[in-house]
Amino acid sequence: MASNILGSAAELVKAPLVHKGKVRELYDLGENFLIVVTDRISAFDYILKPGVPDKGYVLNALSKYWFGVTSGYMKNHIVHTDVDQLQDIIPDADARELLRERIIVAKKAERISIECVVRGYITGNGWRQYEQTGEINGRKLPEGLRKNQRLENPIFTPAAKNDVGHDEDISVDQMAALVGEQLTYELQEKSIMLYTMAHAICEQKGIILADTKFEFGFYAGELIIIDEIFTPDSSRYWSQEKYALDIEIDSMDKEPVRTYLAGSGWDKNSEPDELPASVVEETSNRYKEILHRLVD
After folding, report:
1. CA–CA distance from 102 to each of 54, 58, 64, 93, 285 (Å)?
2. pTM strictly above 0.85
3. What pLDDT sits at residue 5?
4. Cα angle at 22 between 284 and 277, to 5 degrees?
5. Helix/strand/coil for 213
6. With contact defined as beta carbons under 8 Å apart, do 215 and 227 qualify?
């Protein structure tokens, strides 16, 4: 596995930091962006301490894998992923080793401010909406569905991206009012096509891809995939042997952190205590397991 980047990489990169997200950092290289994926982990809008060793490596490796798998169907923002081509902005050899397998040099696309969510199963926030209204994002679903049930066909449930605070669930009609009917149709078709393809690949490896989210942008007038794709931070993965209806399925991501926090008495409104070493280790192993099962 790669070395760990538990904090920021800003001291390692001799380029302007233009955005620091919960996990990813974006640096301006002029023609392109440099994306660095750290081991930071968040919950309820708080960055937790310590980071989770190898998490950033896994996220980057899975994005590279899935961008490769999908590149024949749709272009993406990757220029290259070779840190040794960045000696001008990462001159220190030790710094390059720290960042190896954790970077993507990406095209500067114009981001579309819509999170394109596809759900193949009714669970999570989708299930909570359905229980209350019989709908998800204003879309009426059949009566009598059960929690975690596979939907007859995957559904597209977009969200409007907010740079501050949570993204806002919207209907397809609301999305069309924001970005236009033609782009809405294209994003819906592309998102469902990508999900369907990835679901089939996962199924062959004993994994269920329950839902996922995409970000898209325009580069040189062409629609491309940006950000990350089919990582445990953007997708809900279940192991097939744990699949059942009407229960909370243990997902293959930061579930140990969520479980610990839920039982810790934390009020979710103040800085949380450091995560126990056992929770950090279990979470790290969970991320590495999904990489192993999908890619190895």
Report:
1. 10, 9, 10, 15, 18
2. yes
3. 74
4. 30
5. strand
6. yes
